[in-house]
Amino acid sequence: ALGELLGGTAPASDQSAALKKARAFYDRVLVGYGDDSVAQLGGAHVACERISNVAAKILEDARIGIAPLEKSTRYVRFDQRDENGDYLFYREPRIMASPHRAAYLETLNLLFETYSRQMELVIEFVKRSLPIEEIELRHPQSGKALSYQEAQRDEKLKKWAEIAYRSTVRAQACDILRGYLPAATLTNVGFFGVGQAFEYLLAKLYSHELAEAKNLAAAIHQELNKLIPSFVKRAQFSDYLAESTRATRALSAQLLKELPVQPGDAVTLVDYDREAEEKVVAAILYPHSRHPLAQLRKMAAKMTQKQQRKILDEYLKQRRHRRDKPGRALEQVYYTFDVLGNLGLYRDLHRHRILTQERQDFTTIHGYDIPPEIEEAGFKSDFVSCMEKAADLYEKIRRDLPLEAQYVVPFAYKIRWYIKMNLREAVHIGELRTMPQGHPDYRLIVQEMWRKIQEVHPTLAEYAKFIDWKTYRLGRLQSEMRTEYKRSLT
Q1: What is the pTM of this model?
Q2: Count of domains forming the chain
Q3: CA 400 to chain CA centroid, nearest Å
Q4: Which residues contact 294 (CB under 8 A, 6 or more apart)?
């Protein structure tokens, strides 16, 4: 470790002395000079296991300097039980100490029992609805279309196709059923972060109103003190964060009490740049000139559409696939979307970092989405019954414990959040999140975002040429076949 870095092997005593010396140096710089950038030099990996989805979203809301990776609801089944035979959901301490305890346990157990009972039934339903014999496959090397009957002529192709089909069907069942899962569902989240980012994250957690967040702050802080103690020494409860949250929450309740909630579309384009093309054109020219940006914008504004398009073409037309990222000039243009979508798809889109997202509390007020497969498989009455029972409990808990009531909300319920992002990030999200293997819910939301962009900036929208507008039933199948092919090479 340290000895190897220094070019030789160092005795344990020398390593310990060197670590103490390094720690003293960081303490001296951080305390004596207050140079926060020094805290970007050290980082750590942290694993948070068996935390709720409520807490996971608080952790993952940190953006710069922290990279999270969470257990997937799309590939992992949640019908397991713990060593005591209990389903894996968070027993929120304030709810468990309240008169709502029995109803909380009953309702969340019902959600998990229904999810678990229907899992194998939905897997069989997907197989019946989309038998492998009726699906068009693609060769994992050439991309050539072929049927399962054709794949059977080659033993390797047949094996790849069958393994990929089984994996895809299981994942499809998880996609269909994840709407039952409540926000209390336990998950695992791993992070890599630098000291400066962890310091602020800890302050946010210590200052949060939820007990789980405060407990996580203490646990994470304890572990980081073993790894990067100098960088998190100042992390503590923030009066500012706690008081500003409390005050604005109270003020909002007072001001909005009589204001009815207007119905909204799934995606609303709230704001956008009116001078988008000229901003992008000026930014393309800027690094190759000696002129001020304002002067270049004036010049771009006087150009004809044909002249602007020529510059845009030279900048963007060579893209061969989505991994050829467009340049920074597209960051000059911004869009603000108000999104109304289910909690499950929010979890997926929330992972994007180079943008601004802010959500409202999880709630049942906006209704829920019923997957079409749930209706087709004959489980609609069970689904509706579970959703209504969860909503009834949410309302009862909300009167006493409004923040803690979020733990009851199933993933099928809609929440509202806004996304402000630049055009470059919009291209990235559009081309990534509309890929065939994406969840249908977020594919529809992202496609609708891009319809809104097309309406206001049709010329710029043409350059996001790898957005997939099609609809798929087993869209993940081809990527699973490619995975099996790659696995066979190792």
Answers
A1: 0.90
A2: 2
A3: 30
A4: none
